[in-house]
Amino acid sequence: xxxxxxALAGPHAAMMLGDQGARVIKVExxxxxxxxxxxxxxxxxxxAGDRESTYFLSCNxxxxxxxxxxxxxxxxxxxxxxxxxxxxxxxxxxxxxxxRLGFGMDRLQELNPRLVVLSITGFGHDGxxxxxxxxxxxxxxxxxLMSLTGPTPDEPTKVGVPIADLLSGIYGAFGVAAALHERVxxxxxxxxxxxxxxxxxxxxxxxGTRYTVAGEVPSVAGKHHPSICPYGLFHAAxxxxxxxxxxxxxxxxxxxxxxxxxxxxxxxxxxxxxxDAVVAAVDEAFAPYRRDVLMARLVExxxxxxxxxxxxxxxxxxxxxSQGLLIDVQHATLGPLSLPGPPLRYDDGGRTxxxxxxxxxxxxxxxxxxLDDGAP
Length: 376
Known about the structure:
The chain has 16 helices and 13 strands. By secondary structure, it is α/β, with parallel strands linked by helices. The strands form four sheets. Strands 5-2-1-6-7-8 form a six-stranded parallel sheet. The chain has a three-stranded antiparallel sheet with strand order 9-10-11, with helices on one face. The longest helix is centred in the middle third of the chain and has 24 residues, at 163-186. The protein is elongated, with a radius of gyration of 25 Å. The relative contact order is 0.13.
């Protein structure tokens, strides 16, 4: 597959497919490559010419890199040869850019009728604001996610990672897999489209139907679930603990264990209506406990609970490692690296060896030789 993307949404989609075993050829502009190669600090080994940004390393594992000037005759010719050999092409240019380069959707399908194209835009390729440039935080705001996130309605807050980019990449990879499956029957590829806006609206879940069905406009829920109580962040004597009392069965076990079994809180609806009092009562009940003692007690009575871990704690956690969520790779210039690993595992098979993110143009010669050989 060909990865013509930069930044995060497209590279993440291509990396997901690479994680599943696809050969991913990343096409980058000469000299500077993907924009994220310069996004830092932090950089690793920041000497001139050698430094690599940790941002680029986060979304480009299991790829090869070739540098092409797509505006030049040689670059356009090489890209044409790659397109003819590809199963999938991923692009996240602004609407119209590929057409101006001579590689619009009609041209791509003419070159390779079996090609599946994933096109990711900011707000969609058509409609009254089609072609509008998209950046993650802007999409989080425009898509309503920030109105649901934060401590108060006056402080809309973005998610701590570029979630619009990541979601559109995930949806895009899913669309590619479905299109490849369909191609088995039809013999033809198709264009799959998604956007940062679509990624955000696609995860509105029950908050979306609160408006579309019930006519309610949701607002921030802060540290607590808007429809389940108690479900959120509470305070122990020496730290914070989260609980999720997600059913009446769980409540009837949890409440008596902490002296909270009160008739006015018999149902979840009762508790949601009196949320402030319930939250205050749970905090008061938890206050005498050290966090480790409280966690042990919650586990004992079967209440779903957890800590709030910093990222160093997450990556040092044995459970994280046991799930393959930390991988070791050998980088061409940086040597051995540990990277966040792919989120999917298979009981039988699947990729077990991973490639480090490539240096710029690392595979120029190998890819051109492959094209010249006509190898499958």
